[in-house]
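Study both lines:
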Amino acid sequence: MIAPPSGVVPAFPPPLSAYPPPSPDGLFATLAQRVEQVPFNLIATVIFVLAIVHTFLAKRVTDLAHDVQHRDDERRVAAGRQPRPSVRAELLHFLGEVEVIFGLWALVLAVTMLAFRGWDTVVQYFDGTVNYTEPLFVVVIMALASTRPILTLAESMLERVARLGGGTAAAWWVAILVIGPLLGSFITEPAAMTICALLLARYFFPQAVSERLKYGTLGLLFVNVSIGGTLTHFAAPPVLMVARPWDWDLAFMLQHFGWKAVLAVVVSTAIYRVVFHRELAALGRAVKVGDHAANGVDTSPEVGSVPVAPWVTAVHVAFMAWTVLNAHHPALFLGGFLFFLGFAKATMEFQSPIDLKPPLLVGFFLAGLVIHGGLQAWWIAPVLASLSASALFYGSIVLTAFNDNALVTYLATLVPSLDEGMRYAVVAGAVTGGGLTVIANAPNPAGQALLSRFFGGAVSPLGLFLGAIVPTLIAIAAFQLL
Protein backbone atom coordinates (compact mmCIF):
# COMPACT_ATOMS: atom_id res chain seq x y z
CA MET A 1 0.00 0.00 0.00
CA ILE A 2 1.13 3.57 -0.68
CA ALA A 3 1.96 5.43 2.53
CA PRO A 4 -0.24 8.46 3.21
CA PRO A 5 1.32 11.93 3.12
CA SER A 6 3.03 13.02 6.32
CA GLY A 7 0.57 14.30 8.91
CA VAL A 8 -2.44 12.67 7.19
CA VAL A 9 -4.27 10.02 9.20
CA PRO A 10 -5.13 7.01 6.97
CA ALA A 11 -8.82 6.20 6.72
CA PHE A 12 -9.96 3.88 9.46
CA PRO A 13 -11.55 1.47 9.11
CA PRO A 14 -10.28 1.05 5.54
CA PRO A 15 -13.02 1.17 2.89
CA LEU A 16 -13.99 -2.21 1.48
CA SER A 17 -12.44 -1.15 -1.82
CA ALA A 18 -9.02 -1.03 -0.09
CA TYR A 19 -9.03 -4.80 0.39
CA PRO A 20 -7.89 -7.18 -2.36
CA PRO A 21 -10.47 -9.29 -4.24
CA PRO A 22 -11.93 -12.29 -2.36
CA SER A 23 -9.53 -15.19 -2.10
CA PRO A 24 -10.19 -18.14 -4.45
CA ASP A 25 -9.58 -20.38 -1.43
CA GLY A 26 -12.91 -19.39 0.14
CA LEU A 27 -14.45 -17.14 2.78
CA PHE A 28 -12.12 -18.00 5.66
CA ALA A 29 -9.07 -17.33 3.52
CA THR A 30 -10.54 -13.94 2.61
CA LEU A 31 -11.15 -13.08 6.25
CA ALA A 32 -7.66 -14.23 7.25
CA GLN A 33 -6.25 -12.06 4.48
CA ARG A 34 -8.11 -9.03 5.81
CA VAL A 35 -6.97 -9.66 9.38
CA GLU A 36 -3.39 -9.90 8.15
CA GLN A 37 -3.79 -6.60 6.30
CA VAL A 38 -5.47 -4.83 9.24
CA PRO A 39 -4.85 -6.76 12.50
CA PHE A 40 -7.08 -4.40 14.47
CA ASN A 41 -10.07 -5.84 12.57
CA LEU A 42 -9.94 -8.95 14.72
CA ILE A 43 -9.41 -6.99 17.93
CA ALA A 44 -12.44 -4.77 17.25
CA THR A 45 -14.62 -7.79 16.50
CA VAL A 46 -13.50 -9.59 19.67
CA ILE A 47 -14.44 -6.51 21.71
CA PHE A 48 -17.81 -6.41 19.93
CA VAL A 49 -18.42 -10.09 20.72
CA LEU A 50 -17.55 -9.48 24.38
CA ALA A 51 -20.08 -6.62 24.45
CA ILE A 52 -22.75 -8.94 23.03
CA VAL A 53 -21.92 -11.60 25.63
CA HIS A 54 -22.21 -8.91 28.30
CA THR A 55 -25.74 -8.09 27.14
CA PHE A 56 -26.70 -11.75 27.49
CA LEU A 57 -25.34 -11.74 31.06
CA ALA A 58 -26.98 -8.43 32.04
CA LYS A 59 -29.88 -10.03 33.93
CA ARG A 60 -27.53 -12.23 35.94
CA VAL A 61 -25.43 -9.20 36.86
CA THR A 62 -28.59 -7.36 37.96
CA ASP A 63 -29.69 -10.36 40.07
CA LEU A 64 -26.22 -10.46 41.63
CA ALA A 65 -26.53 -6.75 42.47
CA HIS A 66 -29.81 -7.45 44.31
CA ASP A 67 -28.14 -10.28 46.26
CA VAL A 68 -25.18 -8.12 47.22
CA GLN A 69 -27.49 -5.32 48.40
CA HIS A 70 -29.63 -7.80 50.38
CA ARG A 71 -26.61 -9.28 52.16
CA ASP A 72 -25.25 -5.82 52.90
CA ASP A 73 -28.61 -4.75 54.36
CA GLU A 74 -28.70 -7.84 56.58
CA ARG A 75 -25.20 -7.14 57.91
CA ARG A 76 -26.05 -3.54 58.69
CA VAL A 77 -29.30 -4.43 60.45
CA ALA A 78 -27.51 -7.11 62.51
CA ALA A 79 -24.95 -4.48 63.55
CA GLY A 80 -27.72 -2.06 64.54
CA ARG A 81 -27.14 0.32 61.64
CA GLN A 82 -29.50 1.70 59.02
CA PRO A 83 -29.37 0.02 55.56
CA ARG A 84 -27.97 2.15 52.78
CA PRO A 85 -27.05 1.61 49.12
CA SER A 86 -23.99 -0.60 48.76
CA VAL A 87 -21.24 0.73 46.50
CA ARG A 88 -20.60 -2.77 45.13
CA ALA A 89 -24.30 -3.30 44.49
CA GLU A 90 -24.65 0.04 42.71
CA LEU A 91 -21.64 -0.73 40.51
CA LEU A 92 -23.14 -4.09 39.61
CA HIS A 93 -26.48 -2.41 38.84
CA PHE A 94 -24.63 -0.06 36.52
CA LEU A 95 -22.85 -2.95 34.79
CA GLY A 96 -26.20 -4.74 34.44
CA GLU A 97 -27.93 -1.86 32.67
CA VAL A 98 -28.33 -3.09 29.09
CA GLU A 99 -28.54 0.47 27.75
CA VAL A 100 -25.02 1.33 28.96
CA ILE A 101 -23.23 -1.90 27.99
CA PHE A 102 -22.20 -0.98 24.45
CA GLY A 103 -21.12 2.44 25.67
CA LEU A 104 -18.86 0.83 28.30
CA TRP A 105 -17.30 -1.45 25.70
CA ALA A 106 -16.94 1.53 23.35
CA LEU A 107 -14.65 2.96 26.03
CA VAL A 108 -12.66 -0.29 25.98
CA LEU A 109 -12.55 -0.02 22.19
CA ALA A 110 -11.30 3.57 22.38
CA VAL A 111 -8.51 2.70 24.82
CA THR A 112 -7.47 -0.30 22.71
CA MET A 113 -7.55 1.78 19.55
CA LEU A 114 -5.43 4.39 21.27
CA ALA A 115 -2.85 1.75 22.16
CA PHE A 116 -2.72 0.17 18.70
CA ARG A 117 -3.53 3.04 16.33
CA GLY A 118 -2.87 6.29 18.19
CA TRP A 119 -4.94 9.27 19.34
CA ASP A 120 -5.45 10.73 15.86
CA THR A 121 -7.19 7.55 14.72
CA VAL A 122 -9.41 7.56 17.81
CA VAL A 123 -10.51 11.13 17.08
CA GLN A 124 -10.96 10.43 13.37
CA TYR A 125 -13.09 7.36 13.95
CA PHE A 126 -15.25 8.49 16.88
CA ASP A 127 -15.69 12.08 15.73
CA GLY A 128 -15.41 11.80 11.95
CA THR A 129 -16.32 8.33 10.73
CA VAL A 130 -19.15 7.23 13.02
CA ASN A 131 -22.56 8.65 12.06
CA TYR A 132 -24.69 9.36 15.15
CA THR A 133 -27.76 10.54 13.23
CA GLU A 134 -29.86 7.44 13.96
CA PRO A 135 -29.26 7.49 17.76
CA LEU A 136 -30.05 11.21 17.87
CA PHE A 137 -33.20 10.71 15.80
CA VAL A 138 -34.40 7.90 18.10
CA VAL A 139 -33.88 10.11 21.17
CA VAL A 140 -36.00 12.90 19.69
CA ILE A 141 -38.78 10.77 18.17
CA MET A 142 -39.02 8.65 21.32
CA ALA A 143 -39.33 11.76 23.49
CA LEU A 144 -42.02 13.21 21.20
CA ALA A 145 -43.96 9.93 20.95
CA SER A 146 -44.07 9.56 24.74
CA THR A 147 -45.69 12.96 25.34
CA ARG A 148 -49.21 13.08 26.69
CA PRO A 149 -50.89 14.61 23.59
CA ILE A 150 -49.40 12.02 21.21
CA LEU A 151 -50.08 9.14 23.57
CA THR A 152 -53.65 10.32 24.10
CA LEU A 153 -54.19 10.55 20.34
CA ALA A 154 -52.85 7.03 19.77
CA GLU A 155 -54.82 5.73 22.72
CA SER A 156 -58.07 7.14 21.34
CA MET A 157 -57.42 5.49 17.96
CA LEU A 158 -56.66 2.11 19.50
CA GLU A 159 -59.57 2.41 21.90
CA ARG A 160 -61.97 2.35 18.94
CA VAL A 161 -60.44 -0.97 17.88
CA ALA A 162 -60.46 -2.33 21.43
CA ARG A 163 -64.17 -1.50 21.78
CA LEU A 164 -64.89 -3.97 18.99
CA GLY A 165 -63.69 -6.64 21.39
CA GLY A 166 -65.61 -5.28 24.36
CA GLY A 167 -62.82 -3.10 25.74
CA THR A 168 -61.26 -6.05 27.57
CA ALA A 169 -57.56 -6.38 28.35
CA ALA A 170 -57.35 -8.99 25.60
CA ALA A 171 -58.96 -6.60 23.12
CA TRP A 172 -56.47 -3.88 24.02
CA TRP A 173 -53.66 -6.43 23.73
CA VAL A 174 -54.69 -7.34 20.18
CA ALA A 175 -55.24 -3.71 19.13
CA ILE A 176 -51.85 -2.59 20.44
CA LEU A 177 -49.94 -5.51 18.92
CA VAL A 178 -51.59 -5.30 15.49
CA ILE A 179 -52.41 -1.66 14.80
CA GLY A 180 -49.51 -0.15 16.75
CA PRO A 181 -46.66 -1.86 14.84
CA LEU A 182 -48.29 -1.14 11.47
CA LEU A 183 -48.41 2.55 12.41
CA GLY A 184 -44.63 2.32 12.39
CA SER A 185 -44.74 2.44 8.59
CA PHE A 186 -45.98 6.04 8.85
CA ILE A 187 -44.73 7.49 12.15
CA THR A 188 -41.42 5.51 12.16
CA GLU A 189 -40.70 2.31 14.04
CA PRO A 190 -39.13 3.97 17.12
CA ALA A 191 -42.27 6.08 17.59
CA ALA A 192 -44.53 3.04 17.14
CA MET A 193 -42.45 1.03 19.62
CA THR A 194 -42.62 3.84 22.18
CA ILE A 195 -46.40 4.19 21.88
CA CYS A 196 -47.03 0.42 21.98
CA ALA A 197 -44.76 -0.07 24.98
CA LEU A 198 -46.34 2.80 26.92
CA LEU A 199 -49.87 1.54 26.22
CA LEU A 200 -48.94 -2.03 27.17
CA ALA A 201 -47.45 -0.64 30.38
CA ARG A 202 -50.74 1.12 31.02
CA TYR A 203 -53.33 -1.50 30.13
CA PHE A 204 -51.64 -4.86 30.23
CA PHE A 205 -48.38 -5.49 32.07
CA PRO A 206 -49.43 -4.16 35.51
CA GLN A 207 -52.07 -6.90 35.75
CA ALA A 208 -51.50 -10.47 36.96
CA VAL A 209 -49.67 -11.76 33.89
CA SER A 210 -47.50 -14.90 33.81
CA GLU A 211 -43.84 -14.73 32.81
CA ARG A 212 -44.65 -16.87 29.78
CA LEU A 213 -47.24 -14.39 28.54
CA LYS A 214 -44.99 -11.43 29.35
CA TYR A 215 -42.15 -12.76 27.20
CA GLY A 216 -44.56 -13.92 24.50
CA THR A 217 -45.97 -10.39 24.36
CA LEU A 218 -42.54 -8.77 24.27
CA GLY A 219 -41.26 -11.10 21.55
CA LEU A 220 -44.41 -10.58 19.49
CA LEU A 221 -44.14 -6.81 19.91
CA PHE A 222 -40.51 -6.72 18.77
CA VAL A 223 -41.13 -8.91 15.70
CA ASN A 224 -44.34 -7.09 14.71
CA VAL A 225 -42.64 -3.69 14.96
CA SER A 226 -39.65 -4.91 12.94
CA ILE A 227 -41.76 -6.16 10.03
CA GLY A 228 -44.62 -3.68 10.51
CA GLY A 229 -42.52 -0.78 9.29
CA THR A 230 -42.07 -2.22 5.79
CA LEU A 231 -45.28 -0.91 4.22
CA THR A 232 -43.38 2.24 3.25
CA HIS A 233 -39.82 3.07 2.22
CA PHE A 234 -39.13 5.78 4.80
CA ALA A 235 -40.01 4.46 8.28
CA ALA A 236 -38.00 1.29 9.01
CA PRO A 237 -34.23 1.88 9.49
CA PRO A 238 -33.16 -1.25 7.53
CA VAL A 239 -35.35 -0.19 4.61
CA LEU A 240 -34.16 3.41 4.76
CA MET A 241 -30.59 2.21 4.27
CA VAL A 242 -31.37 0.63 0.90
CA ALA A 243 -34.32 2.61 -0.47
CA ARG A 244 -32.29 5.28 -2.21
CA PRO A 245 -29.34 3.18 -3.48
CA TRP A 246 -31.68 0.49 -4.85
CA ASP A 247 -34.53 2.80 -5.98
CA TRP A 248 -37.17 1.15 -3.79
CA ASP A 249 -40.27 3.35 -3.60
CA LEU A 250 -43.67 3.09 -1.90
CA ALA A 251 -45.18 0.95 -4.65
CA PHE A 252 -42.27 -1.48 -4.52
CA MET A 253 -42.51 -1.85 -0.73
CA LEU A 254 -46.27 -2.46 -0.78
CA GLN A 255 -45.96 -5.03 -3.57
CA HIS A 256 -43.01 -7.01 -2.21
CA PHE A 257 -43.11 -6.45 1.57
CA GLY A 258 -46.14 -4.57 2.85
CA TRP A 259 -48.98 -7.05 2.38
CA LYS A 260 -46.82 -9.93 3.56
CA ALA A 261 -45.91 -8.01 6.71
CA VAL A 262 -49.57 -7.22 7.46
CA LEU A 263 -50.48 -10.88 7.03
CA ALA A 264 -47.63 -12.04 9.28
CA VAL A 265 -48.53 -9.51 12.00
CA VAL A 266 -52.20 -10.55 11.99
CA VAL A 267 -51.49 -14.30 11.91
CA SER A 268 -48.82 -14.16 14.63
CA THR A 269 -51.03 -12.13 16.94
CA ALA A 270 -54.01 -14.41 16.27
CA ILE A 271 -51.96 -17.51 17.11
CA TYR A 272 -50.70 -16.00 20.37
CA ARG A 273 -54.25 -14.89 21.15
CA VAL A 274 -55.39 -18.53 20.84
CA VAL A 275 -52.41 -19.94 22.74
CA PHE A 276 -52.92 -17.54 25.67
CA HIS A 277 -56.72 -17.50 25.39
CA ARG A 278 -57.47 -18.58 28.95
CA GLU A 279 -55.02 -16.23 30.60
CA LEU A 280 -56.03 -13.25 28.48
CA ALA A 281 -59.73 -13.94 29.04
CA ALA A 282 -59.13 -14.15 32.81
CA LEU A 283 -57.79 -10.58 32.83
CA GLY A 284 -61.32 -9.31 32.16
CA ARG A 285 -62.01 -5.68 31.37
CA ALA A 286 -59.00 -3.46 30.87
CA VAL A 287 -58.25 -1.02 33.68
CA LYS A 288 -55.92 1.85 32.87
CA VAL A 289 -53.15 2.32 35.40
CA GLY A 290 -53.85 5.63 37.09
CA ASP A 291 -57.60 5.13 37.21
CA HIS A 292 -57.14 2.67 40.05
CA ALA A 293 -53.39 2.75 40.62
CA ALA A 294 -52.82 -0.86 39.66
CA ASN A 295 -50.38 -2.65 41.94
CA GLY A 296 -50.14 0.46 44.03
CA VAL A 297 -48.27 2.37 41.33
CA ASP A 298 -49.94 5.35 39.72
CA THR A 299 -48.16 6.01 36.42
CA SER A 300 -50.88 7.72 34.42
CA PRO A 301 -49.70 11.01 32.90
CA GLU A 302 -53.25 12.38 32.98
CA VAL A 303 -53.45 12.56 36.76
CA GLY A 304 -54.16 16.13 37.81
CA SER A 305 -54.19 17.40 34.22
CA VAL A 306 -56.89 19.00 32.10
CA PRO A 307 -57.99 17.37 28.81
CA VAL A 308 -55.58 17.99 25.96
CA ALA A 309 -56.72 20.78 23.63
CA PRO A 310 -56.94 19.70 19.97
CA TRP A 311 -54.65 22.51 18.84
CA VAL A 312 -51.94 21.30 21.23
CA THR A 313 -52.19 17.80 19.77
CA ALA A 314 -51.98 19.25 16.27
CA VAL A 315 -48.77 21.10 17.14
CA HIS A 316 -47.27 17.91 18.61
CA VAL A 317 -48.12 16.03 15.41
CA ALA A 318 -46.47 18.83 13.42
CA PHE A 319 -43.29 18.52 15.49
CA MET A 320 -43.28 14.76 14.87
CA ALA A 321 -43.81 15.31 11.14
CA TRP A 322 -40.94 17.79 11.06
CA THR A 323 -38.68 15.27 12.81
CA VAL A 324 -39.62 12.43 10.45
CA LEU A 325 -39.24 14.54 7.30
CA ASN A 326 -35.79 15.71 8.43
CA ALA A 327 -34.66 12.38 9.88
CA HIS A 328 -31.34 12.59 7.99
CA HIS A 329 -30.59 16.17 9.09
CA PRO A 330 -29.79 16.25 12.83
CA ALA A 331 -29.27 20.02 12.88
CA LEU A 332 -32.89 20.48 11.74
CA PHE A 333 -34.64 17.89 13.90
CA LEU A 334 -32.57 18.75 16.99
CA GLY A 335 -33.35 22.42 16.47
CA GLY A 336 -37.02 21.53 16.12
CA PHE A 337 -36.83 19.55 19.35
CA LEU A 338 -35.45 22.54 21.23
CA PHE A 339 -38.41 24.60 20.00
CA PHE A 340 -40.69 21.76 21.08
CA LEU A 341 -39.31 21.82 24.63
CA GLY A 342 -40.15 25.50 24.80
CA PHE A 343 -43.66 24.83 23.50
CA ALA A 344 -44.14 22.03 26.05
CA LYS A 345 -43.11 24.42 28.82
CA ALA A 346 -45.61 27.02 27.64
CA THR A 347 -48.44 24.45 27.51
CA MET A 348 -47.70 22.70 30.81
CA GLU A 349 -51.37 22.34 31.76
CA PHE A 350 -51.84 19.98 28.79
CA GLN A 351 -48.59 18.08 29.32
CA SER A 352 -47.21 15.42 31.61
CA PRO A 353 -43.59 15.72 32.80
CA ILE A 354 -41.23 14.90 29.93
CA ASP A 355 -38.89 12.16 31.13
CA LEU A 356 -35.78 12.31 28.97
CA LYS A 357 -33.93 9.54 30.80
CA PRO A 358 -35.33 6.59 28.77
CA PRO A 359 -34.73 8.28 25.38
CA LEU A 360 -31.22 9.32 26.37
CA LEU A 361 -30.36 5.81 27.60
CA VAL A 362 -31.67 4.31 24.37
CA GLY A 363 -29.70 6.85 22.35
CA PHE A 364 -26.58 5.96 24.33
CA PHE A 365 -27.20 2.28 23.61
CA LEU A 366 -27.58 2.87 19.87
CA ALA A 367 -24.57 5.17 19.75
CA GLY A 368 -22.45 2.42 21.29
CA LEU A 369 -23.89 -0.06 18.81
CA VAL A 370 -23.06 2.04 15.74
CA ILE A 371 -19.55 2.64 17.11
CA HIS A 372 -18.89 -1.10 17.29
CA GLY A 373 -20.89 -1.92 14.17
CA GLY A 374 -18.87 0.45 12.02
CA LEU A 375 -15.85 -1.81 12.50
CA GLN A 376 -17.55 -5.04 11.41
CA ALA A 377 -17.84 -4.42 7.65
CA TRP A 378 -14.59 -6.30 7.02
CA TRP A 379 -16.27 -9.64 7.76
CA ILE A 380 -20.00 -8.99 7.24
CA ALA A 381 -19.65 -7.81 3.63
CA PRO A 382 -17.75 -10.89 2.38
CA VAL A 383 -20.11 -13.17 4.31
CA LEU A 384 -23.11 -11.59 2.55
CA ALA A 385 -21.41 -11.73 -0.83
CA SER A 386 -20.61 -15.44 -0.45
CA LEU A 387 -24.22 -16.57 0.07
CA SER A 388 -26.95 -17.62 -2.36
CA ALA A 389 -30.32 -15.84 -2.24
CA SER A 390 -31.88 -18.45 0.07
CA ALA A 391 -28.80 -18.66 2.28
CA LEU A 392 -28.61 -14.86 2.29
CA PHE A 393 -32.15 -14.66 3.70
CA TYR A 394 -31.38 -16.97 6.60
CA GLY A 395 -27.89 -15.58 7.03
CA SER A 396 -29.34 -12.09 7.39
CA ILE A 397 -31.64 -13.36 10.14
CA VAL A 398 -28.65 -14.75 12.04
CA LEU A 399 -26.49 -11.65 11.48
CA THR A 400 -29.36 -9.39 12.54
CA ALA A 401 -29.62 -11.17 15.88
CA PHE A 402 -26.12 -9.92 16.70
CA ASN A 403 -26.08 -6.61 14.82
CA ASP A 404 -28.53 -3.79 14.25
CA ASN A 405 -30.45 -4.88 11.13
CA ALA A 406 -29.92 -1.45 9.58
CA LEU A 407 -26.16 -2.14 9.63
CA VAL A 408 -26.70 -5.46 7.84
CA THR A 409 -28.75 -3.90 5.04
CA TYR A 410 -26.38 -0.94 4.74
CA LEU A 411 -23.44 -3.28 4.20
CA ALA A 412 -25.48 -5.11 1.57
CA THR A 413 -25.60 -1.89 -0.48
CA LEU A 414 -21.78 -2.02 -0.64
CA VAL A 415 -21.81 -5.43 -2.30
CA PRO A 416 -21.96 -4.80 -6.08
CA SER A 417 -22.91 -8.35 -7.09
CA LEU A 418 -26.38 -8.47 -5.48
CA ASP A 419 -29.21 -8.95 -7.96
CA GLU A 420 -32.85 -8.02 -7.19
CA GLY A 421 -33.64 -11.41 -5.65
CA MET A 422 -30.65 -11.23 -3.32
CA ARG A 423 -31.50 -7.66 -2.35
CA TYR A 424 -34.99 -8.77 -1.40
CA ALA A 425 -33.56 -11.69 0.56
CA VAL A 426 -31.18 -9.61 2.68
CA VAL A 427 -33.78 -7.00 3.62
CA ALA A 428 -36.51 -9.59 4.25
CA GLY A 429 -34.13 -11.55 6.46
CA ALA A 430 -33.00 -8.45 8.32
CA VAL A 431 -36.53 -7.33 9.25
CA THR A 432 -37.61 -10.92 10.00
CA GLY A 433 -34.86 -11.39 12.58
CA GLY A 434 -35.40 -7.96 14.15
CA GLY A 435 -37.21 -9.31 17.20
CA LEU A 436 -34.89 -12.10 18.30
CA THR A 437 -32.63 -9.94 20.49
CA VAL A 438 -32.63 -6.45 21.98
CA ILE A 439 -29.83 -5.33 19.65
CA ALA A 440 -31.41 -6.70 16.46
CA ASN A 441 -33.54 -3.64 15.66
CA ALA A 442 -33.02 0.00 16.63
CA PRO A 443 -36.44 0.45 18.32
CA ASN A 444 -36.01 -2.63 20.56
CA PRO A 445 -33.95 -0.84 23.23
CA ALA A 446 -36.78 1.69 23.54
CA GLY A 447 -39.28 -1.09 24.21
CA GLN A 448 -36.96 -2.69 26.72
CA ALA A 449 -36.28 0.58 28.52
CA LEU A 450 -40.01 1.26 28.93
CA LEU A 451 -41.02 -2.28 29.93
CA SER A 452 -38.00 -3.70 31.79
CA ARG A 453 -39.54 -2.89 35.17
CA PHE A 454 -42.12 -5.60 34.53
CA PHE A 455 -39.29 -8.13 34.00
CA GLY A 456 -37.44 -7.61 37.25
CA GLY A 457 -35.39 -4.75 35.86
CA ALA A 458 -33.79 -6.71 33.01
CA VAL A 459 -35.15 -8.75 30.12
CA SER A 460 -33.82 -12.30 29.80
CA PRO A 461 -32.23 -12.79 26.34
CA LEU A 462 -33.38 -16.42 26.30
CA GLY A 463 -36.90 -15.46 27.35
CA LEU A 464 -37.08 -12.84 24.59
CA PHE A 465 -35.76 -15.29 22.00
CA LEU A 466 -38.33 -17.94 22.95
CA GLY A 467 -41.10 -15.34 22.93
CA ALA A 468 -40.09 -14.14 19.46
CA ILE A 469 -39.38 -17.47 17.76
CA VAL A 470 -42.95 -18.29 16.69
CA PRO A 471 -43.73 -14.88 15.07
CA THR A 472 -40.26 -15.01 13.49
CA LEU A 473 -41.06 -18.38 11.89
CA ILE A 474 -44.37 -16.98 10.64
CA ALA A 475 -42.54 -13.99 9.14
CA ILE A 476 -40.12 -16.41 7.47
CA ALA A 477 -43.04 -18.23 5.90
CA ALA A 478 -44.64 -14.97 4.76
CA PHE A 479 -41.50 -13.56 3.12
CA GLN A 480 -40.21 -16.83 1.70
CA LEU A 481 -43.29 -18.76 0.63
CA LEU A 482 -45.65 -16.02 -0.58
User: Anything to note?
Assistant: The two ends are 48 Å apart (CA to CA). Residues 290-304 have pLDDT under 50 and may be disordered. The chain has 23 helices and no strands.
